Amino acid sequence: MRAEILAVGTEILLGNIVNTNAQYIANRLAELGIEVYHHSVVGDNPKRLKEAYDLAFKRSDLVIATGGLGPTKDDLTKEVAFEYFGKEAVLHENLLKNIEEFFKKINMPMGENNRKQALFPKDAIIMPNNNGTAPGCIIEEGNKILAVLPGPPREMKAMFEESLVPYLVKFQDSILVSKTLRIMGMGESKVAEIIDDILENSKNPTVAPYAKEGEVTLRITAKAKDEVKGNELIAPLEREIRNRLGIAVYGEDDSTLEEVLGKILVENILTIATAESCTGGLLAGSIINYPGISSVFKEGFVTYTNESKVERVNVRKETLDRFGAVSSETAAEMAEGAAKAAGADIGLSTTGIAGPGGGTEEKPVGLVYVGLYIKGEVKTKELNLIGNRQRIRNMTVMNTLDWLRRELLKNNVK
Predict the structure, then answer these.
(1) Fewer Cβ within 10 Å of end Cβ, the chain: N or C?
(2) Is pTM, for the whole model, over 0.90?
C-alpha cells in the first residue's frame, strides 16, 4: 500500500505552525509496514484542495488528510472530499448528539455552524473524536482509501490510534522494525566511509545515516512479519557497525549523551563538579538533566570573570597573567579546583571565546579549552568550533560530556 499524507491549512502552508502531524503519522505508518511516498500541504482553498486530492490518488492508494474539520466556512477538507468522490453528506443524529453533549460538558452554547461537523455520507466509516467536536471518517472508493483526521495534534493522535490503526492493521503483511545508533566525535562523511560497504549492500535491513547537531545517527530498519523477527535481522548488522565504529557509538534509539553519562556516574558512584566560563552553566544544566544525578553531582561553579576563577576554584593569578583565561593551563586549574572545592572525584571545566566578538588571530572565536580532573590526574583538550555564540556553547557542552564518557570507558568504567 502506497500512502500519502496531506496537511490542509493555510497556516501550515505559510509556515505559521509546524506540521508535527505529518511527522507523527509517517512514523506510525512505518511501524505498521505502510510506506509513505509523499507529503503535501495545501491551503484552505476548495479548488486547490480538490486538485491535491486528485494528484494524491493518482499516485497513492491511501491518503490521510489532517485539518479543516472545524465548523467555520474555510474548514472544507471533508466537504471537498465528498464532492471529489461524488458522495452526498447527510446529518448523522448520533454525531450531532455527541457534539451537543461536548458543549454541555464544557458549559458553553453550541453554535449552529457546529452542525456541519455531523454531516457525512451514509457509507462513510466514522471515526469518533473523544477529545473535541470534529469526528473524522474513512471513505473507501474502489481500491482507494481516504482517511480524514482533525488538525489539533491532541485530537489527531487519539483518533489515529483509537480508530485508524485498528482499520489499517487488516492491510498488514509485514511491519518495519527500526533501531537507531547514536554517534559522537565522528562526522557523517567519516561514518559513511567506515561502513560504506554496509550502506551500499544492505537490503533488509537497510541502514540510513542522518547528521544532527554535533552527532550522527544510523537508523537500521528491517521489514519482517513481526518485531521479534525484525530484531533478529537487525542484530548481526548492529554488531558489525558497533565493532567498526567502536567507542564513537554512545547510545541507541532515544538515549541522550547526558543520560548515558549520568548512568555511568551514578552506577559507579563517581562524584562530579563543574567550573564554567564560556558555557555559563550549560554544562552543569546538561548533567543534571539525568534523574538521580543528585547522588553524585556535587556543585557547579560559573566562574565567568578572572576574579571568580581565582576566588571560587583557586586558579592562580600567575596562570591567568601568563597564559590568559582562555588557555589549557587555566582549564586544567579550573577542573582541579572545582573537584577539590566540592570534594568530588571528577572536575570538568570550560573556558573559551564564544563570540561574536573578543577573538584575536592568536585566539579566535570558537577556541575553547576543556579541563578534566579525575582522582589526581588532570587533562585538557582544545576545541576549535564554528557557528554563532549559542552553537559554540552547545557544542562545547556536547564535546565535553563525550570526552568524559570516553575517558571513563578507557578506564574500564562502564
Answers:
(1) C
(2) no
